[in-house]
Amino acid sequence: MRRIAASLSLALAAALALAPGAPAAGRLVVKGHGFGHGIGMSQYGALGYAQHGSSYRDILSHYYEQTNVVPLADPPDVRVLLQTTRRVVVSGMVAGGSRKLKATSSYSVGASGGRVSLYAASGRRLGTYAAPLRLSAPKAGAFRLRGAAANGTRDGRYRGALELRVVGSRVEAINALNLEDYVRGVVSAESPSTWPAEALKAQAVAARTYAVTTNVGTTTDGIDQYADTRSQMYKGVAAEFPSTDAAVAATNDEVVAQDGKPVTTYFFSTSGGHTENIEDSFIGALPRTWLKGVDDPFDSVSPRHNWGPFTFSQASVQAKLKGLIRGSFRGITVLERGASPRIVRAEVDGTNGVTQVTGPQLRTRLGLFDTWASFTYISGTKKQSSDEDGGGDGDTPADVPASTTAPGATTSPTSGGATPPPAADATGGQVATTGG
């Protein structure tokens, strides 16, 4: 009898909730354009240009205005952080410091009081060395790094050498290799190897230029680049294909330069039809003449040229924007847009006031593909929309079903500098180098 009474109570409560005049739960509807930070070269836009007959030099000069492609005078080596772990396990090495090793054997390296110890596969300690210890692969050959690397590759193969450094009780595995072999490991990790040759050449030059104009480390830690989207994706030998190797070889040592000096070449997936000024995407960065927003007419080949609409429930928005909402959520008002027009500044509206936020903050909190977005808040009694986003056609927010879900893209999908540069950086990148 109690179960029947409880069921009747639940049914009555549901009926009352649906009765005329009952307040409906609010929902936020978001639609937008693009995928990434919007700065520099759109990879899908480059694909579109290549499909329409543009050369890689034309593609690069379009996205990086007032630049040209020049040969690099003195190509540097690149040091890429692959792994930080308690024990590094490798095979395919022929030397460790001054000690000869067998390429067919496995070795491990661990931290030992600020130094590094080298062990045979049997566990026998072969020696303890001051860091960094350099393990070398055969010339033109590759070594295998066991376990998971920062780039998502497991048991990956890499050219060059492996330098081992100590951080506390852990060991950093850093791949040291020449610039061209590094770029071979980047191009297909960033652009599909099946893309047209001119798009792959543009990617090769952009990747090479980014590598020589940025540095994520310091003068003493021996790291230039990360192996993931904090710098650009690098997967070593696994990324080498005939098509991408040909693109690297055809553009050997070429970089994007302004007045003869290499410049930081940010790139990303999809523009949505227009790229963005660096200062309006990396909020606080200094303006750069070669990183201005430009029209991107062929970017529509991307599956994320337009996206959404996505719907967030009231409870979901309250949770995702926690700390930014004063009282109960009532909507988002866009205050300023950039050239593309991605969101620069906005207000989160609550029943107890408003909070100013940046476009990148909203993208991160809501897990959006891009900051080129528009918002419509639908409550039980009214609809509040942000300003028009200037983009292409899409579904009318009022007609979006409540079951539509948001993407949850909480991590950056793009590279070529997913991490904003310091505001005072003189090149628009992280820490600039001359590139030789």
Detailed description of the structure:
The protein is an alpha+beta fold and 436 residues long. Helices cover 19% and strands 31% of the residues. It contains nine helices and 25 strands. It has helices at residues 2-17, 43-51, 56-63, 179-184, 187-190, 197-213, 242-250, 314-320, 359-366, and strands at 27-33, 41-42, 68-71, 77-85, 87-91, 95-96, 99-100, 106-112, 115-120, 125-129, 133-136, 142-148, 154-159, 161-167, 170-178, 225-226, 254-258, 261-262, 267-268, 306-313, 329-337, 343-350, 353-358, 372-378, 383-385. Strands 7-6-11-14-15-4-16 form a seven-stranded mixed sheet. A six-stranded antiparallel sheet has the order 10-9-8-5-12-13, with no helix packed on it. A hairpin with a 4-residue loop joins strand 9 and strand 10. Helix 2 (43-51) runs antiparallel to helix 6 (197-213), helix 3 (56-63) crosses helix 6 (197-213) and helix 6 packs across helix 7. The N and C termini lie far apart (85 Å). The model is unreliable at 1-23, 392-404, 409-413 and 423-436 (pLDDT under 50).
Summarize the structure.
This protein has 436 residues and is of the alpha+beta class. Helix content is 19%, strand content 31%.
